[in-house]
Amino acid sequence: MIKKFKKTSLIVFTMFLAACSTVPLTGRRQANLVSDAEMQQMAAQSYREFLSAPSTKVVNNSAQSRKVKEVGSNIASAVTKYLKDNGYADQTAGYQWEFNLIESKEVNAWCMPGGKVAVYTGILPITQTDAGLATVMAHEIAHAVAKHSNERYSQAMIAQGVGSLLGAAINSQTFNQLFGIGAQAGVLLPNSRKQESEADRLGLTFMAMAGYNPQSALDFWTRMAAQANGQAPPEFLSTHPSDATRISDIKKYLPEARKYYVGK
Q1: What digits encode the pLDDT tens for the residues 38-49?
Q2: What mean pLDDT is predicted for residues 31-57?
């Protein structure tokens, strides 16, 4: 039994080393045992189901919805170009970007693998400006570009000793269970604090690449922190570090982001 356990552990460890990838800009190594194509296929299906659900109210042909699409497209174009120019084109290979504004009081936004983005109207009073909106969208796009979803699925595989997930294609049920889609449509399960902090750092740089002043992120996060007002934080903040720590970290990341900011 011990020999079998050691053998299984060795196989998992070997697979982990062989399937590590590197996050652009931060250089962090991460587990990546699942194909991007499968993740993107399931994300696209879940996104379609979310948009067509009776409880989902997609906002179309409004100034706000057009702004969401404009800012999202600017960030996606700038980031895709940077990745291609710096040897990371595979990070967004196969992406078919979509940006939708959802009518909801919930203070939230998210991005699925493959560039499927949703922004809720409840967060717009806090974003206030184009740069504020870019802060939110760049942060969420950073999660996708950094392949945090792939990493989470890989971690689940490793936790199970690869087991029944090994060699099996991702199915809708597995994807929905892992990311919380379905029963709570559109509410993604929290990322780890490490991933959230990484998305903060990447998001600053991504918004700068798109021509939005990264300094504006401090104003947004200060408004977002005030939104909690001593109560339970909005879903968007649920796994972030403390307000003071987050803002302090963003100040540390700003010099890096400013290198990419040209301004409009």
Answers
A1: 889 988 998 998
A2: 87
Longest CA–CA span in the chain (Å) reads 64
How far is residue 98's CA from residue 72's CA, in Å, rounded to a whole number? Answer: 8
Any bridge partners for residue 188, and if so which?
none
| Catalytic residue chosen out of the listed positions 140, 196, 198, 235 | 140
Domain boundaries, the chain: 2-258
Tell me whether residue 140 is one of the annotated catalytic residues. yes
pLDDT one-digit tens code per residue, 78-91? 999 999 999 989 88
